[in-house]
Each structure stands twice: as structure tokens, then as C-alpha cells.
Amino acid sequence: MFSLGTDARPALHFTVLGEPPLKLLRYQQQFSFFEPAKMERSIRFFNLSDDVLSGDLGAVLSTIVREVEQANPAVVVVDSFRSVARAASHRWNATRASGVSPAYRAQPNQLSGDHVSSGRVPRQRDA
């Protein structure tokens, strides 16, 4: 991230349920590549834990899409995307068990490519 992020094309790091950004930064400070001057300009951290824990996966996707569109980043890191997929799966199973028909089930391949860049997520039919 430090070598790829620039002021014009920053590196974006989204923390989902992994290490909090502050803990990550404290750890990275011990390495020679760490450049404090790049923080907030060339390297930006976002903590999405509250949105994931609340079950608001639409907010997670909206935040990622908004920040990517605004920043035109050189690199995007999502730590850990598996947490988003697991939360989506848990939400799907809980909704299905309750008898309510979900309009959308997030899957990793749906949250990539054209869907992220356009901000559109396709609807999936109920099983």
C-alpha cells in the first residue's frame, strides 16, 4: 500500500472485522516502508465493522463504492471480505428461516467488477 498509494491515486484500506486501523498502523510503524507523511493523503483507512455487525450490508457496499469512485485509487484492500460474505450468508439463512422472502443475497462474485464500479448490485431470485 505504501509503495502504490500516491496523492493522486491513493491506497484505500477497508477494515471489516479484522484488525482495527489503529492497531494495524502501530504494527506497520516498525517497518522501513512506513511513511507517516502518506497517511490520510496517499493511504486512507476505513472501518466498516459497525455496518457489518448491524447487518447493514447495503451500507458496507455503498461506502466502498462511494470511496472508490471519489478517490480513483491505485489499490483497494478489503480486510476481510470473507467477513462480509459470512455476514451475508448468515443474514440470508436467518431471513430464510423466518419465512420472509429476501430480495437480495450478497455473494462475493456479485460485489465485484461492474457491480461495484456502477454501484449496481443485481437482484437474485429466491431459491
Please give the domain count. Answer: 1
Number of strands: 3
Helix content: 40-55%
Oligomer: single chain
Note the gap between the termini: 40 Å
What is the mean predicted local confidence, pLDDT?
74
Shape by Cα distribution: globular
Major sheet characteristics: 3 strands, parallel
Strand content: 5-15%
Strand order of the largest sheet: 2-1-3
Number of contiguous helices: 5
Structure class: alpha/beta
**Topology pattern, helix = H, strand = E:** EHEHHEHH
Radius of gyration, CA atoms, in whole angstroms: 16 Å
Low-pLDDT sequence parts: 100-127
What does this structure look like?
Strand 1, helix 1 (21-28) and strand 2 (43-47) form a beta-alpha-beta unit. This protein has a 3-stranded parallel beta sheet with strand order 2-1-3. The chain is 40% helix and 12% strand. The protein is of the alpha/beta class. The model is unreliable at 100-127 (pLDDT under 50). The longest helix is centred in the last third of the chain and has 18 residues, at 81-98. The protein has 5 helices and 3 strands. It has one domain (11-118). It has helices at residues 21-28, 49-53, 57-71, 81-98, 114-118, and strands at residues 11-15, 43-47, 75-79.
Give a brief outline of the structure.
The chain has helices spanning 21-28, 49-53, 57-71, 81-98, 114-118, and strands at residues 11-15, 43-47, 75-79. With 127 residues, the chain is α/β, with parallel strands linked by helices.
